[in-house]
């Protein structure tokens, strides 16, 4: 017979242990595969901030902190910021179609997660006859089709883009964002792992220069991306959410497929 106080003491010891146990994986993304994350977009993906023309770690810094309990790597052909893993596919100044025209080598790297934040330059710059503001959401649809064609099994997280300071620009961002679910619907219905991520909660208070986030704004974006990846691991649970997709998959395969 074990005395009651001993049971109690053991209970409290365990309680203390679990509270201080360093490996409580609350923030870990369940995944049988290494997450190969392609941050894809324009200067906001590059991490541009005034005074840092070569870019900063941008939202990738906070995202990498949140992913520290998970096996992951950022991929892409562009390098910006001070992190050792500073790869991305952020092209400052580029509109959706311009990003689409150069992204193939990055998609060939075989991302299983693509973070899309694109459209700001379509909406902020002067519109052209070929690319009017009104069809920017459709251009985003075509862009996502290009991604699907290359990496059909990847989780594609499409941002409702962040707000801008300029009222004119901002008055077009709202309708652009609101059109995204309609544009993505058919792509989602064909079984592709696409989710829409609301980055538009980043308002002008979190900008450094009217268009680009401050350091705090970028950190906020990183948290949102992290939550979106967490959500994707649940939403697409029955579809092997983070299946390795690219040529590098056998080399990068880390554990049993789920
Ligand atoms: C920015 O990039 C250019 C071109 O790669 C390089 O020459 C320059 O030294 C960089 N500046 C800083 C501050 O890192
Ligand atoms: C990156 O590192 C360089 C060199 O140490 C430094 O000058 C620069 O301010 C850093 N950039 C950021 C965004 O932290
Ligand atoms: C994650 O899912 C929750 C629950 O549906 C939702 O409230 C939240 O907005 C989602 N987060 C992101 C970043 O998509």
Automatic annotation (TrEMBL):
Signal sequence range: 1-20
Organism: Lophiostoma macrostomum CBS 122681
Database matches in CDD domains: XynB_like (cd01833)
InterPro entries linked: Ester_Hydrolysis_Enzymes, SGNH_hydro, SGNH_hydro_sf
Keywords from the named record: Signal
GO molecular function, one term: phosphatidylcholine lysophospholipase activity
Domain SGNH hydrolase-type esterase: 40-219
Name of the protein this chain belongs to: Carbohydrate esterase family 3 protein
Pfam family, one: Lipase_GDSL_2
